[in-house]
Amino acid sequence: MSFPQDIRYALRALRKSPGFAVVAVLTLALGIGANTAIFTVVNAVFFNPMPVENAERLVNIFTIDPAVSARNFNFLPLSLPNGQDIAREIQAFSGVTVYTRGVPVSMTISGQPGQFFADAVSGNYFDVLGVHAVMGRTFRAEEDREGAAPVAVLSYGFWQRQFAGNPHVVGDSVLLNGQRFAIIGLAPRGFQGPTTLGGPDLWVTMSMHDQIFVGLQKTMFNERRFLGYSATGRLKDGVTMEQARQQLRILGSSLEQAFPAANKGRTFIPIPLLQSGVNPNFRDFFTRAGFLLMTVVGLVLLIACANIANLLLSRAAGRRREISIRLAMGATRWRIISQLLTESTVLAIAGGGLGLGLAVVGRNLLWKFRPPFLVGSNLSLPLDWRVLVFNLCIALATGVVFGLAPALQSSRPNLVSELKERTGNEMYSSRLFGVRNIFIMAQVGLSLVSLVGAGLFLLSLRNAQQIDPGFDTHNLGMITFDVNSLNYEASRVKEFERRVLEVVESTPGVHGATLSSAMPLVNGGFGRSVFPEGRDPNASRNGMFGQVDSVSADYLETMHIPIVRGQGFDSSVREDSPRVVILNEAAAHRFFPDLDPIGKRFKFFGDDAWVQVIGVARDSKYNTLGEDPTPYMYLSLLQYPAGAVTVFFRTGPNTQSVLPTVRERVQALEPNLPLTNVWPIGEVFSQALWAPTFAASLLGLFATVAMLLCAVGIYGVVSYSVGQRVREIGVRLALGAQPRDVLLMVLRQSAVTMGIGLGAGLVFAFGLARLIVSLLYGVSANSPVAFSATALVLAAVGLLASYIPARRAAKVDPMVALHYE
To answer: Could you give the CA distance from residue 740 to residue 729 in angstroms, rounded to a whole number?
Structure first.
């Protein structure tokens, strides 16, 4: 019989058992669909090629600084002068583009002001990357020179979202930070720069830095120590990565000698674009997360395979006579195995086809719950050839996995017994390690691994929710604005911020307001190097790193952050008075170990003014909820003004009802000013908790599916076993056994099987926990709660699934059972 005939025979056989076929296809579709949906995300992040020319010849260039690398942040950006030196001196590259990402800009579209994000790039940016506009054109070299006309290129996603795909936008102009920019082109779909995650709304030339840069980015634009830029280079034909690495190392040594204050100890390293599209500092995190998700959905698929294998074993029991006749007529055992594997493969391919549809639904659902920083991203999740090949391969592999054992067992029946139409020996041994019991052990073990993973992340989420952020989160609202985007002069910025505080504080329901240049857990504050008095500020190795936040006088009081030593800002702090600072406890310990910090002084790198410590505040969380104590400095907004600030305000119990009024009043002060982050503080925590919440929810869902599939499998095997042992049970009852004895016998045998599975599962779960512990908040790799609780839950579910057929066995009528054939 040829392969096409095998397929036709398999289809006829499945049509005769529609119930079995439907259950099998749906079960497989669930497992294959989940795997395909998760792989679609992994493919988009790690494998999907960027829409650039010859991506394998492109490299991202990073700064390596041992002093910073000690804090586990190994790959740093560049300074603009260093990037320009690389572009000019390194002969291994045919071109190098230098750029800075995510510059906030104000743009008014259809009369509505909004804040968007631009990348400021060198004029050769698109040429180096080999990217061509789908409409209009990209930048020319002369457009990146001082005095050039302001021009912009839109990203495809931004064009669709904000301009509804209007082709006439190219050639038109828009106002960015009050400056008119001509839109000269549209980038191709999916292009978001040399990065996989995130991306800008538009690109402008670096020559427009005065128009779009604000704050320290503007004042330190050309400072060699300011690491605020990225660089991407294209290797010349025939040049190897090692040659580029050697040239960058030599240049790093040269720049260290020429500029020791800024470049002491620093060097440069190229990393292929295909490996650095995800920031190398976070690639390990994303790799572990992707591995975890693929592992969990893989376990679900294996559990589904074990279920289908047991179904096939049960189905094969009814086909023993058919198979015996075929063997007696001369069919080889391999021929029987081939036919049975064809049937299982047909089921798997049908499940894979349906699973592809479920994958599309799952992919879209996953994208709806993407993290906040990807809300406006152009990242796509295509069902490209990789996803389709993955789906086909996993379907074929699944067919072999769940079909092989039943095929091997079914192809060796007892011909004499079967051809005489006698019951004979049971086809599948009732031994503890018989095929059916092994499948159940595997299902229990795999389900336990899934449940432990979900349990660990649930504990992590609970711990994250209980972390004290260091400030009072009750009844706190916020609104962010950036008057720098309107090109206000310094005096006008201060006046506007003063008026904002007045109108917010006078709003009914508001009990206090304050301003801050940072936003806890979203934008923790800018990093600066500190040189305590007595250390040479020209020797960069003497500097210590900390984050800064410019705040109004009553910030700590409004946020309920206590002063533990010294004092806060008072009326004596003025614009022209000596500069002062309040340190947090971590900064006080770091900058002035074993000393009383009050009255001590330091300088910031590049600033000649002394800053005196007047107080020490309690540590808070600034960047993430799980961070270790971080050196932090509160500066006076009067002495260190900032145009991009957030107004925080205390309200009564219902902050949400006060927000619209506050927003309306602030907007009335400047109708063209974009207002963002109009939230109660709870929204910030929702974003900060996105990762643990998403992980706990997704893994919890998959673990629940795995547990239900395991329960169904246990029920099916115990039911089959009871059905095969009706005569034995009848004999036991006839000889005086009580129904309770039969019930306990079945449950005991089932418990032994599950116990072995649980033991094996605990071993594998412990190994998985050690791999993912870095993704968890305050949970150890051997958490007794996660392991014991999930094992007990799974054992209870398994025993419940066994109890139903066991109870049926205990009610067998001995007279009926003894006549059972």
So the answer is: 12
Q: What is the residue whose two structure tokens read 């907004």?
A: 637
pLDDT score of 422: 46
State the DSSP H helix or E strand holding residue 152, giving kind and residue range, or none if neither. Answer: strand 151-154
| Helices marked H in 214-371 | 215-219, 241-258, 260-263, 273-276, 280-317, 320-328, 333-368
β 179-186/173-176 pair status: antiparallel
Residues of the chain with pLDDT under 70: 1-3, 67-73, 316-323, 325, 327, 330, 372-379, 409-433, 535-542, 724, 815-821
How many C-alpha atoms does 478 have within 13 Å on its Cβ side? 25
Three-class SS of residue 120?
Answer: strand
Instruction: List CB contacts of 604: < 8 A, sequence separation 6 or more.
Output: 528, 529, 530, 531, 611
How many other β-carbons are positioned within 10 Å of the β-carbon of residue 422? 11
Using a cut of 0.85, tell me whether the model's pTM lies above it: no
- SS3 assignment, position 191: coil
Interior CA angle at 694 toward 691 and 695, to 5°? 80
The span from the CA of 415 to the CA of 346, in Å, is 28
What is the C-alpha separation between 267 and 258, in angstroms, rounded?
A: 13
C-alpha to C-alpha distance for 707 and 366, rounded to whole angstroms: 22
607: helix, strand or coil: coil
The amino acid at residue 16 is: K
Contact 341, 15 (CB under 8 A): no
What tokens does 766 get? 């412990």
User: Three-class SS of residue 549?
Assistant: strand
* Residue found under tokens 């079960």: 27
Question: Is 222 within 8 Å of 81 (Cβ atoms)?
Answer: yes
For position 1, what pLDDT does the model report? 47
pLDDT at 68: 60
Which residues does residue 267 pair with via DSSP β-bridges, in sequence order? 64
Q: Are 99 and 233 in contact (CB under 8 A)?
A: no
314-323, long-range: CB within 8 Å, 24+ apart, which pairs? 314/716, 314/720, 315/17, 315/20, 316/340, 316/406, 316/409, 316/410, 316/427, 317/427, 317/428, 317/720, 319/410, 320/410, 320/413, 320/418, 320/427, 321/418, 321/419, 321/421, 323/410, 323/411, 323/413
Give the CA count within 13 Å in the CB-facing half-sphere of 668.
Answer: 9
C-alpha–C-alpha distance, residues 366 and 41, integer Å: 9
Q: Coil, helix or strand for 2?
A: coil
| 592-to-582, 586, 695 alpha-carbon distances in Å | 13, 10, 40
The amino acid at 700: G
441, burial (CB in 10 Å: exposed 0-12, middle 13-18, buried 19+): buried
